[in-house]
Write a structure and sequence with these properties.
The protein has six helices and nine strands. A hairpin with a 2-residue loop joins strand 7 and strand 8. By secondary structure, it is of the alpha+beta class.
């Protein structure tokens, strides 16, 4: 029996889920994670009830992903419960069948592509970069149309700020975090955040003007800014960076 490894690229809307990663407590509520939804449907389609997946990154509850990945092993040559021998799957058909089930059960997850990778490949430890995008929609309160447009277009996916927001300070503050700096790792202990120790990490922070459908088609004047934060490794409590950038923008 030979185990083949497959990499799954997928996208999702995070609002219905309790984050990406499977939770340790597999109760009916904590079970609702993106990884668990994909794992269950892969098990069903492949008829592999013990199949386990490994994810390449983590996101919290409510975070969306345009592209993420996980991998799983498939024991080719093994025998299924119905007596059939496990054969190499048609990867295009596999992706389609999983998406059919996801759509049937109204899941906000879609498989983009599935590919075979070397058995030594690990989607977490061999990732070259992790790229996060935060969108700010700035609607000026002295302009009701602008403010309301920003609110509607940014609903559930972006941040809305008012006329006190200083774009110049915001961009200048972001530049302070870009490059190789001493960031701190944090952990939760008794619901308190305590510092573990310093770590040097390269982070790229880039800000650029975002596109707006309301501005293009309705003549709106709301401002949209996209904050790109990229690093080769996980940034635990990464929101602390974005919070400090925001605090200096008022």
């Amino acid at each position: 029996m030979t185990c083949y490894r497959y990499l799954v690229h997928f996208a999702y809307i995070g609002k219905p889920y309790r984050g990406l990663q499977i939770q340790g407590n597999c109760g009916p509520v904590s079970d609702k994670t993106v990884q668990n939804v994909l794992q269950k449907n892969l098990r069903t389609v492949l008829q592999q009830p013990s199949l386990k997946t490994s994810i390449g990154s983590r996101t919290d509850k409510g975070v969306n992903a345009l592209s993420c990945c996980l991998h799983f092993n498939l024991p080719l040559g093994s025998t299924l419960e119905n007596g059939k021998i496990v054969q190499p799957p048609n990867l295009e058909k596999l992706a389609k069948n999983v998406n059919v089930r996801l759509q049937l059960y109204q899941e906000s997850v879609r498989v983009l592509k599935i590919q075979q990778v070397p058995s030594t490949f690990h989607c977490r430890f061999q990732a070259l970069c992790r790229h996060y995008v935060y969108r700010l929609a700035i609607g000026r309160k002295d302009n009701n149309d602008s403010y309301n447009q920003a609110f509607v277009e940014s609903a559930e996916m972006q941040w809305v700020r008012d006329s006190m927001f200083d774009t110049g300070k915001f961009i200048k503050a972001a530049e302070m975090f870009s490059g190789k700096n001493q960031f701190f790792l944090y952990k939760k202990s008794d619901k308190k955040i305590s510092r573990v120790g310093p770590t040097e990490r390269s982070v790229i922070v880039h800000i650029r003007r975002g596109n707006s459908l309301s501005n293009e088609y309705c003549g709106g004047s709301a401002e949209f800014w996209d904050v790109h934060i990229a690093s080769c490794a996980f940034m635990r409590k990464q929101s602390l960076i974005s919070k400090r950038i925001k605090q200096t923008s008022y």
